[in-house]
Amino acid sequence: MTIPSVDESPAEESPAEESAADGSPARTAAEERHATWLELFFDLVIVAAVAQLAHLLHEDVGPREIFLFAILYYAMWSVWTSFTLYANVRGERTLQWTVLTAMFGIAVMAASIPQFAEGGAGYKYFVLAYIACRFLAVKSWQRASAVMAEWPAAQQFVPVIPWVSSLWDGGVGMHWHYFQWGLGIVLDIAFAVGLSRRPDKMLKDAQKEREQERRRWTRRFANRRGPQPVVPQLPDMQIVHADRSHLGERLGLFVIIVLGEAVAQVVNSAAGADWHWPLALAGFSGFGLLVCIWYLTLQYGASAVPNATTRTYGLPLTLPTHYLMTASVVVIAAGLGTLAAHPDGELSTAHRWVLCAGAAVYFLTASFIGARTGAPLRWMLGWGVPSVTVTLLLGVFGGPLPGWGVSGVLVLVAVWHILYRRDVRAARVRAAVPRQG
Fold this sequence. Notes:
By secondary structure, the protein is mainly alpha-helical. Helix content is 68%, strand content 1%. The chain folds into 2 domains: 34-215 and 235-240, no CATH class; 244-432, no CATH class. The longest helix has 30 residues, at 403-432. The chain is globular and about 85 Å long.
């Protein structure tokens, strides 16, 4: 994934000219940070979470299931993002117990997804784990005396208040809870985007809270009798920035995780079916689609746009698009799992739309990134818009096609994206070769 700069300017500085998050000189290529064993262990819990989320879209799929998927996936993704940014900034000073506790919290959230989907009081386990993880993230950032101005949602608790209020039934039913959870997500994104534009205000408010905390500590120790203990010195709050290369690796690993789960969905469905030619075609096309998505996402820098890897943008753009693209891959994984189970028959309308809608969101997000990175009009009209249009038309009119035919069309759309980059490279090579005569 392409990792952004704060000022949304072209990334032209060399590693030696950049500065690290704490203001020190950036690491050289040989000293570049990579994901630690703790971070990789933390990422593993996402595998279980993604698997449980994909099951939401396997059986009876309707608006409720789609809404719950979007809500639950965002909740777990936001917890992962908060602690990923925390570990990114803190580096070797990361407190292991906080990351491991968050890992356990995500595991509880993943395990409670089936009860959440069934309704009743089971949803409270998920909500309680989510609230606890977000509260722990806030405290972790405060303990580090750091202000993440690029993505304030990583250390804000106000957007979690609607989730807290949903723990009380009040006799209004689940529909009111849907509104509360949706409101919490809207507030989360609004805080992240809005406050990121006012880093000075964030720092001022954080420092004001730190001064209040210092006064509380002073009063607490002043009332003690006997020799006065040393009052803990709380440092001033400071704005910190993400380590770009390290964060890029973590976001890319997340993409690999959801792609791996998509492969697992196809393999598990194929393992329980009778092997025949339709299944082979479904498996081949499904695997080919995932390979194309991997190529477009991790080789092209989130989209098949010529300059997607030469210009980077801030976290308020990168992280929401990361959520949309990875969520769309999970939806595609659920669709491919159903496809492998019914390769020679027609997919139900709901499951065909699961697969096509996931692909449409993926290509729509890629087109949006392309527009933001200055993609030429030729790409937008010849590749971006047609890809979204074809996938939506496939969802509407693809009923007569067998399952493998639906995935085969999606593979062709993805390959069309890949061929554009090759066409651009070939044109550059031709332009670089001097003409004879």
